[in-house]
Design a protein that fits this description.
Shape: globular
Number of domains: 3
Distance between the termini: 73 Å
Structural class: mainly alpha
Strand content: under 5%
CATH topology of the largest domain: Serine Threonine Protein Phosphatase 5, Tetratricopeptide repeat
Number of strands: 0
Length: about 325
């Protein structure tokens, strides 16, 4: 094949990826790789395609060849870590992540390494690892990401007060950082500290009055606790104006109208949210509205289906018990 032919085929293969025709794209890239077996772009792209399609053994082979070629080695090592992590080969994953040096993949390699410590139940080791990574990092945005990762470890371990304390330290270093404030707000909600959640979300909104994420979180939390619901609906409506197709915001709209006794309107929003994102909480909200409207068979059906996907979800189990009375 001539260089022009190769360029055309490469362009065609990239177009197939954009069209999400991944199987056909993979076939095109493999043909190109046969003619240029050491080409780093081809090895990298084939590795990504196989990783996306969960063909982990094949992805690992491509990234190993890329690493052996000495080209794009930090990307290769990062993705070799990803492959090992997906295959639950955690020691190998940590080893690869440890070989990723400075660059765009370094932070995520640190975060994923700490997550592996968390999966093993080695919480303090994961925290120490992230603390050391923060000391080595100068970019404020990266330091914040490392704090957020440590907070995630604490949240998954149920250590909410420790997480709140950690984010307090982080905010002393990075005042009014919206990501840290939002993370602390969510952590506070876990242990019923609604005043802390509200204060942190209002600090975000003081700087960014149209922050849809903060508006929705504040509105939904107030609605969920049945506090100041008309005021809460105002926040949610502002979030909805900015993100009319966001299922989380649509769910909040439905839940607010339910709390206000506007059941038909609530069901319309919740049906729409559930169609966009059939997750457990939205399913529970939709089921509860249907039950309240006397649609008991439909309510049970939605609940049953949701429980098949997440059988230990606390809210769904509470609804099941309530319906059985």
């Amino acid at each position: 094949a001539t260089p022009d032919d190769d360029a055309l085929r490469l362009g065609f293969a990239k177009m197939l990826i954009q069209m999400e025709r991944f199987g056909e794209a993979r076939a095109q890239f493999r043909r190109l790789l046969k003619e240029r077996p050491e080409n780093p772009e081809l090895l990298y792209t084939l590795g990504l395609l196989d990783l996306q399609e969960r063909h982990y053994a094949n992805a690992g082979k491509y990234f190993q060849r890329l690493n052996d070629s000495g080209r794009r080695i930090h990307e290769a090592r990062y993705y070799l870590g990803r492959v090992a992590q997906e295959r639950k080969q955690f020691d190998e994953a940590v080893e690869w992540y440890g070989q990723v040096s400075r660059g765009p993949f370094w932070i995520d390699a640190q975060v994923r390494t700490a997550a592996i410590f968390g999966q093993r139940g080695e919480l303090e080791e994961g925290r120490d690892y992230l603390s050391q990574a923060r000391l080595a990092e100068r970019e404020a945005v990266n330091v914040v990401q490392l704090y957020l990762a440590e907070g995630q470890l604490l949240s998954e371990a149920g250590r909410y007060q420790a997480g709140i304390n950690l984010f307090g330290e982080a905010l002393a270093e990075h005042p009014r950082n919206s990501d840290l404030l939002y993370a602390r707000a969510l952590m506070a909600e876990q242990i019923g500290r609604i005043y802390r959640l509200e204060a942190d979300l209002r600090t975000i909104l003081d700087a960014d009055p149209n922050n849809a994420t903060a508006l929705n979180a504040l509105g939904f939390t107030l609605v969920d606790h049945n506090e100041r619901v008309p005021e809460a609906l105002g926040y949610i409506e502002r979030a909805f104006a900015a993100r009319p197709n966001d299922p989380a915001v649509i769910d909040s709209m439905g839940w607010a109208h339910f709390r206000l006794g506007e059941y038909a309107r609530a069901e319309q929003y919740l049906h729409r949210a559930f169609k966009l994102l059939p997750d457990s909480e939205i399913a529970g909200h939709l089921s509860e509205v249907m039950w309240t409207r006397g649609q008991k068979d439909e309510a049970r059906s939605v609940l049953r289906e949701a429980l098949t996907k997440e059988s230990e979800h606390e809210y769904l189990l509470e609804l099941r018990d309530r319906y059985a009375r």
